[in-house]
Amino acid sequence: MAQASIGIIGGSGVYDIAGLEHKRWEKVESSFGAPSDELLFGELNGVKLAFLPRHGRGHKIPPSEINFRANIDVLKRVGVSDVISVSAVGSLREHLPPGTFVIVDQFIDRTFAREKSFFGTGLVAHVSMAHPVCKRLGDHIEVAAREAGISAMRGGTYLVMEGPQFSSLAESELYRSWGCDVIGMTNMPEAKLAREAELCYATVAMVTDYDCWHPNHDDVTVEQIIKVLLANADKAKSLVKHVVPHIGADAKACECGCRSALQYALITAPEARDAAMKKKLQAIAGRVLK
Ligand SMILES: CSC[C@H]1O[C@H](OP(=O)(O)O)[C@H](O)[C@@H]1O
Ligand SMILES: Nc1ncnc2[nH]cnc12
């Protein structure tokens, strides 16, 4: 099986990575079912990466049906330690117009119809989500964006809704009153599962619309989102090209804590742990399940 150190999860409009060397799609099996698609392996400046289109090639899978557990599990299985999520979002703020890139640092999870943990009955774990993204990865993205001439706002709260329908005006206003900056349907439970898998995770959110709250802008439509995404595609690709060598060259030990998230998270007594669960969780939690 091919190996990679960096994982890129591409959202709406991002179904491929241009300019990859030694490019090939490969199927990777997970103990949590089928991931969204095969992984696209390749190299950028000698750094090995694995790309996964979150909705599958051709955008066949809606947000609530994405097998987030399998997606994170396959990335972990091929050796990935750093994951960058590239996602389309609506803006909940006047100062974040369509075309803006936001390096998200907080989430509010309003999803309710998804598997949110690798753990469960027979093997219980509680990881911290106080700081849900990796600051070190955020730093690399910020530097890469500057190099690529892309203006990216550092920090912002992403409200994750269940979807697939867009928000009502009352919901949009409620999220604004909560201090949220952008809205989307996919980064949870993805970020929670990446934390359980001890992967560093960061999100580049690309604003495509003003949702439905802005009095001077039309309510969001898929047509409008695609139009902005197409205009932003080159920026997104350029950002990926610039950030991968930075992360690849970052050999120093990660001090963010993402990679030791499970150290004190398991609460089920060793003798009470379910054997089948332990087997299923080997790739994700083998480090602490010896
Ligand atoms: C196509 S518009 C709505 C869709 O786009 C975003 O997905 P992703 O984060 O994968 O780019 C949003 O969350 C919705 O799933
Ligand atoms: N306004 C919006 N709401 C939810 N998800 C989105 N993705 C892009 N724009 C969105």
From TrEMBL:
Pfam families: PNP_UDP_1. The keyword Thylakoid does not apply. It catalyses: S-methyl-5'-thioadenosine + phosphate = 5-(methylsulfanyl)-alpha-D-ribose 1-phosphate + adenine. GO terms for cellular component: cytosol. Residues 6-244 form the Nucleoside phosphorylase domain. The record marks 167, 222 as: Important for substrate specificity. One of its GO terms (molecular function) is S-methyl-5-thioadenosine phosphorylase activity. The keyword Oxidoreductase does not apply. SUPFAM superfamilies: Purine and uridine phosphorylases (SSF53167). Phosphate binds at residues 12, 54-55, 87-88, 186. It is an enzyme of class 2 (transferase). One of its GO terms (biological process) is purine ribonucleoside salvage. It comes from the Bacteria. Catalyzes the reversible phosphorylation of S-methyl-5'-thioadenosine (MTA) to adenine and 5-methylthioribose-1-phosphate. Involved in the breakdown of MTA, a major by-product of polyamine biosynthesis. Responsible for the first step in the methionine salvage pathway after MTA has been generated from S-adenosylmethionine. Has broad substrate specificity with 6-aminopurine nucleosides as preferred substrates. This is S-methyl-5'-thioadenosine phosphorylase. It comes from Sideroxydans lithotrophicus (strain ES-1). The lineage of its organism: Bacteria, Pseudomonadati, Pseudomonadota, Betaproteobacteria, Nitrosomonadales. The gene is mtnP.
